[in-house]
Amino acid sequence: MTTPPPPGQNPYRHPAAPVPARRWSVKRVLKGVVSVVVVGVVVYGGYTTWFGGAATADAGDCLHAGNAAATAVISVGDPEFEIVDCGTPEAQFKVAGRASGTDGTCDDQYQRYTQGGAGRDFTLCLEPLK
């Protein structure tokens, strides 16, 4: 004879079936890889927009203006600067000086670049290399 179950429990209850392991499909792996790449591109783009290029340039750094000619007048928001090695052909400007605020002045032989916003106002004095 079997013993009855304790009060409050179902005498006909069976143990739960094991949960099948998740399968790793190619589609699922690709979705994960694409998601990581997209997040990486967004993070990198945001970082370089807010903290890269001219925003991090210091005296002695060389810059390449991604969308401006080396002889063009530089105005706020025009160039997409990136810091490059001074020995490369991409180097168009050398930072001669950096000052806080957008009211900094530069000697006549330098081009003046200012950038402001979000408490990161600065002025760069740029020496054209070409």
Overview of the molecule:
This protein has 130 residues and is of the alpha+beta class. 20% of the residues lie in helices and 22% in strands. The protein is built from 1 helix and 5 strands; from the N terminus they run αβββββ. It has a 5-stranded antiparallel β-sheet, with no helix packed on it. Strand 4 and strand 5 form a beta hairpin. The longest helix is centred in the first third of the chain and has 26 residues. The model has no long low-confidence stretch (mean pLDDT 76).
Strand order of the largest sheet: 2-1-3-5-4
Oligomer: single chain
Basic shape:
elongated
Overall residue-averaged pLDDT value: 76
What order do the helices and strands follow?
HEEEEE
- The unreliable regions are none
End-to-end distance, in Å? 100 Å
Beta-strand segment tally = 5
Give the DSSP E fraction (strand runs of 2 or more residues): 15-25%
- The portion of residues assigned to helices is 10-25%
Rg over CA atoms, rounded to whole Å, is 30 Å
Individual helix count: 1
What's the story with the biggest beta sheet? 5 strands, antiparallel
- Please identify the structural class as seen in this structure: alpha+beta
